[in-house]
């Protein structure tokens, strides 16, 4: 052991001192370190003995740093930070990437495909922000977003078409089969609305705009309307790619032959210049490949 290392105090003593100095309380320091209060006090006393200096003023119900203690703890914290930084270099964390999507996109399309993503990109720590709010790339820490709209989405942003939005009316076949023979589902099943409120447009293009409305149930999320339809509660409107899997398995059936095209489609949007450019490109390319495969 070198002479410099031989001069170093006990690492346990230094750690106990730093935590006690932060809390100014041996009991709280002991709770953080997972040892007894007596063990913390003893480690600090041993450190003081080794240094030949008093680091704390001890009173019956309070603890204060001495002038030497205040000076020493500042440098000790810097030393611990250097050790932590050196350790992080040896054990780098995965690359973090935050993607902003709507709750329905997350639930009905992205989450079922996450295993495929993690298998393909194990080094990327994907963080999903599910919100209907338009996230800000600068202030919200978002690297990538899936947005419904029409480009351009803003200066300095690149948008790639993910899906064209074709809205269809769907219901559970069980709900349809419960109706009397020859009954009209649109006349007898509740219409399940979401925040987009597209039923008037769908009924208009289906030539049903003037009919009296049956019972209406309203939700603030498309995913909730879809789940209600799956549970046999009525007819929901949804972009076809959200319900493609349920239509394919027969859990849902299409009630009308028409599709509504609103002119707003789903795009992958990212800043032209990004701090995580390679990771953003990898996730964007994966999303586009998945979209093509599910089209």
UniProtKB/TrEMBL annotation:
SUPFAM superfamilies: Periplasmic binding protein-like II, Winged helix' DNA-binding domain. GO terms for biological process: DNA-templated transcription. The keyword Transcription regulation applies. It comes from the Bacteria. Keywords: DNA-binding, Transcription, Transcription regulation. Residues 9-66 form the HTH lysR-type domain. GO terms for molecular function: DNA-binding transcription factor activity; sequence-specific DNA binding. Belongs to the LysR transcriptional regulatory family. This is LysR family transcriptional regulator.
């Amino acid at each position: 052991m070198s002479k410099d290392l031989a001069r170093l105090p006990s690492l346990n003593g230094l750690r106990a001192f730093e935590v006690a100095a932060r809390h100014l309380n041996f009991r709280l320091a002991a709770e953080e370190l997972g040892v007894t209060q007596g063990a913390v006090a003893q480690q600090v006393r041993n450190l003081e003995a080794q240094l030949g200096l008093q680091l704390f003023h001890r009173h019956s119900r309070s603890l204060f740093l001495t002038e030497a203690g205040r000076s020493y703890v500042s440098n000790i914290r810097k030393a611990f930070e250097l050790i932590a930084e050196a350790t992080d270099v040896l054990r780098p964390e995965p690359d973090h990437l935050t993607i902003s999507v709507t709750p329905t996109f997350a639930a009905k399309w992205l989450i079922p495909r996450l295993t495929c993503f993690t298998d393909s990109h194990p080094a990327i720590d994907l963080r999903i922000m599910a919100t209907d709010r338009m996230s800000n790339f600068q202030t919200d820490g978002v690297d990538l977003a899936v947005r419904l709209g029409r480009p351009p989405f803003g200066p300095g942003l690149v948008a790639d078409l993910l899906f064209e939005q074709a809205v269809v009316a769907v219901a559970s076949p069980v709900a349809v089969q419960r109706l009397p023979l020859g009954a009209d589902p649109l006349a007898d099943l509740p219409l399940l609305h979401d925040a987009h409120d597209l039923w008037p447009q769908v009924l208009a293009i289906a030539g049903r705009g003037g009919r009296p409305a049956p019972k209406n149930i309203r939700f603030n999320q498309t995913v909730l309307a879809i789940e209600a339809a799956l549970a046999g509660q009525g007819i929901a409107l949804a972009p076809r790619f959200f319900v493609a899997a349920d239509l394919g398995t027969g859990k849902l059936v299409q009630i009308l032959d028409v599709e509504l095209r609103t002119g707003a489609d789903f795009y992958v949007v990212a800043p032209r210049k990004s701090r995580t450019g390679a990771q953003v490109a990898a996730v964007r390319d994966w999303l586009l490949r998945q979209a093509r495969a599910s089209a």
